[in-house]
Write a structure and sequence with these properties.
The structure is a single chain. The protein has about 190 residues and is mainly alpha-helical. The protein has a domain of about 80 residues: RNA polymerase sigma factor, region 2, helix turn helix motif (Rna Polymerase Sigma Factor, Chain: A, Orthogonal Bundle), CATH 1.10.1740. The chain has nine helices and no strands. α7 packs across α9.
């Protein structure tokens, strides 16, 4: 990453080769359109190349950092494009999970198991509740934006969110009860 920061084209090529596919997949899940996802991924990688933003190892992995840049660009693209609800499918994660990890680590195994448990819990929700959770967490929309996109009253969206989070918490409690870091509390602000 130090070489990418110094604008080394070969280092940037390696970065893109390792994380470009995951970046595109995330952008596609959020914006729901292949052309728009390509644009978002390209914008994200260009911003990494052009910006003075530096990767900080203490804050997470390179992939997490790259995907956070892609996610932010995708959310910006959604907001620029109006308040349409993207087509999201949490099962798309299964495609990413099927890819082999670069290193078979205990942390990677735990992450994959956690992801499987979460997808299972999401599938157990009624469609109207899972849709709200997908738009909030995978799409990055606020509750107000979700209400507008779905043409539903804000109170209905808030109720669905709270109910869905309570169901998810109950379903996942046996798996995460010993981890104080895991929280599925709805926030008090406009975002979920």
């Amino acid at each position: 990453m130090a070489h990418v920061d110094r604008k080394d084209p070969q280092a940037f090529e390696v970065l893109y080769d390792r994380h470009g596919g995951a970046g595109y997949s995330l952008a596609y899940r959020i914006v729901g359109d292949r052309n728009a996802a390509e644009d978002v991924a390209q914008e994200a990688f260009l911003s990494i190349w052009r910006s003075n933003a530096r990767f900080d190892r203490a804050r997470g992995s390179v992939r997490s950092w790259v995907l956070s840049v892609v996610r932010n660009r995708a959310i910006d693209a959604l907001r620029r494009g109006g308040s349409r609800a993207p087509k999201l499918d949490h099962d798309d994660d299964a495609l990413l999970e099927a890819r082999p990890a670069e290193e078979a680590t205990e942390e990677e195994a735990i992450r994959r198991e956690t992801s499987r448990e979460l997808r299972g819990a999401l599938r157990s929700l009624p469609d109207d509740q899972s849709r709200v959770i997908e738009l909030a967490y995978f799409g990055g929309l606020t509750q107000v934006e979700i209400a507008q996109a779905l043409g539903e009253p804000l109170g209905t969206i808030k109720t669905r969110t709270r109910t869905a989070l309570e169901r998810l918490r109950a379903a996942l409690r046996p798996h995460f009860s010993s981890d104080p870091e895991v929280s599925l509390q709805p926030s008090d602000d406009a975002t979920v």
